Amino acid sequence: MNNPLLQSFDTNYGAAPFSKINNTHFKPAFEKAIALAKSEIDDIVSNPASPTFENTIEAMEFSGKILDRISSIFFNLNSAETNDEIQKIAQEVSPLLSEFSNDIRLNLELFKKIKTVYLQREHLNLTDEQRMVLEKKYIGFTRNGANLNNKEKETLRKIDTELSKASLKFGENVLAETNAYQLIITEEKKLEGIPATAIEAAKDLAKNNNIEGWIFTLDYPSYIPVVTYATDRELRKEIAISAGKKGFQKNEFNNEAIVLQIVNLRHKRAQLLGYKSHANFVLEERMSETPENVLSFLNDLLEKAKPTALKQFKELQEFAHKDGIETLEKWDSAYYSEKLKKELFNLDDEVLKPYFQLDNVVAGVFSIAQKLYDLNFEEIFDVDIYHKDVKTYRVTDNNNNEIALFYTDFFPRKGKRNGAWMTSYKNQYINNGVNSRPHVSIVCNFSKPTESTPALLTFNEVTTLFHEFGHALHGMLANTTYPSLSGTSVQWDFVELPSQVLENWCFEKEALTLFAKHYKDDSPLPMEYIDKIKELGSFLEGLQTLRQLSFGMLDMEWHGKDPANIKDVKSFELNAFKNTQLFSDTPENCMSTAFSHIFQGGYSAGYYSYKWAEVLDADAFAFFKETGIFNKETATLFKNNVLSKGGTVKPMDLYTAFRGQKPTNDALLKRANLT
Ligand SMILES: [Zn+2]
């Protein structure tokens, strides 16, 4: 058998052997690995000894390792470097995988064993972590139908297979629409206002396509400069409306029916399992616990933020009015925000960008990780990569102990999905006394270097990098026994704390001086910019807050009630937005049909968690500010109680152990200037 995915990885660090893998390896590897994982489960089930924590729960934790490995490689590639062939394989293997996991989850004999252990849990002398993994496994089974009769189980399996196909299709449609769009400009004067780097990139793209002129796309580094800077209002309108049409056009990539299919399947599934709604089902395992708690959390913030948001909207409208704009539209929002920002602060992205050369920012975030958590990053060149843009680092502590393998993949390309994310190729866990270290990756879509300039980041891209790096720290510093509780495997409304808290360092002089220097002459970012950056942190934050709340509320609307009577995606969405909508509606646009977070990714009934985590991150950072942003003691408390603990302890307990008290939203309201 010559399939590199099925052999033990003899590469350095046991890293994924990308150069040996080709697409034909995936399907047979999945089939074999699934069979192997099945037989490991069969061994647990057929073990004649009476069930114990070790022979059941622990054995399950360490089963299916090869399948995990193959899945992470394959699905990471499907996000970062996909093509038609990989997407086709994904369509084929996804049903196999959900069938397999359902086979386990609905395995009655296995459940009986787990239940036996679960019922004895008080008498087993378990550690806190063991108890957590046991409870999580048990609930995992009951939430997946362990208490259903055979007919109901059959129904559940059918729903899950359909759901997995529908979500995959949803994402493919969004990607197809993104890739299909090109805005070709032939008149140079239309480009007025757009930054030179974006124009240059558009020119390069046109050249590569043998087209005279400039090509802009819906990839963020191409799209964002147009809507933010193009003086030509029609141009902004054209590209903004095109971006808002994803999945909402009368073509083969329309997602309306898929949205309705997904929410109805989710509701049916929740009801089958005895929950009132999909949101009730989801939130049972969250820090927030119930839809009612989430709604009151969102409504409370809406109430506090709305007066400021309305005031800021009015200010922006008046500002645009001076430019002859009668009604401020969506495609004016970024443009006039940027313009107002420039007038108030005289500090636009293009002024700051030269101070944020990608390489410097990366070195800066590494040095912050060194100061806070004693981590060292050394770039290495002997690890396999899947694309030439990928860089790899060996991460060690101050005693040269291996902490992690770290990948970065920063630039957009066809086949990489939008946005930025952290992922891993391998979990951390401790097995047979060996602490097996994780392989962590961050993937972004930052502005590429051009022929004349190195990669320079907007300030927003800087905070994005810090955000993803915060997730990466959570993964890299993981120190738990069981893989299912390791690193970022925490309750969802807690997972954004490590990422969002790190963004705060981007606004601090003490941190910025480490890396913000002009790429041409190393001159430091001028002090006045640093003060302005801080002030800028709360600029139009009322509008931003309202936007985030609108997404959170839309998500809860889709998932908190019986969707059976929803006939029209667009009008349902409009209704969900009625308390948060500031701009007039664009009839040919729809948010839901491209809302990948909740219909492709795992954020359904969970979008609120961004704001939830903001409350946590503001409160946590207030603690750092009180004690010093590089205070080792505070950092160590955060590392020991949050970053290294994964999901081994309930989030509120972890947080309280770090902070010495429960979080309040005072710090967030103050930071965002919403008081
Ligand atoms: Zn995040």
Share of residues in helices: 40-55%
Number of strands: 9
The ligands bound in this entry are: zinc ion
- N-C termini distance: 65 Å
Count up the helices.
27
As a percent range, the share of strand residues is 5-15%
Runs in which pLDDT lies below 50 for 5 or more consecutive residues are none
Major sheet description: 5 strands, mixed
Query: In one word, what is the shape?
Result: globular
Rg is 25 Å
Strand order of the largest sheet: 3-4-5-9-6
Round the mean pLDDT to the nearest integer and report it: 95
Q: What is the structural class?
A: alpha+beta
Features:
675 residues; alpha+beta; 5-stranded mixed beta sheet; two-stranded antiparallel sheet; 27 helices; 9 strands; globular
Describe, in plain words, how this protein is organized in 3D.
- By secondary structure, the protein is α+β, with helices and mostly antiparallel strands.
- The protein contains 27 helices and nine strands.
- It has helices at residues 26-46, 53-61, 65-80, 84-105, 108-119, 128-142, 150-180, 196-208, 220-229, 233-244, 256-272, 278-283, 291-321, 330-345, 349-352, 358-373, 459-476, 497-503, 509-512, 527-536, 541-560, 569-576, 596-599, 609-627, 632-643, 651-659, 666-671, and strands at 183-185, 214-216, 376-380, 391-396, 402-409, 421-426, 429-431, 434-436, 439-443.
- It has a five-stranded mixed beta sheet. It has a two-stranded antiparallel ribbon with strand order 1-2. It has a two-stranded antiparallel ribbon with strand order 7-8.
- A hairpin with a 2-residue loop joins strand 7 (429-431) and strand 8.
- The longest helix is centred in the first third of the chain and has 31 residues, at 150-180.
- The protein starts with 25 loop residues before the first helix and ends with a helix.
- The mean pLDDT is 95.
- Bound molecules: zinc ion.
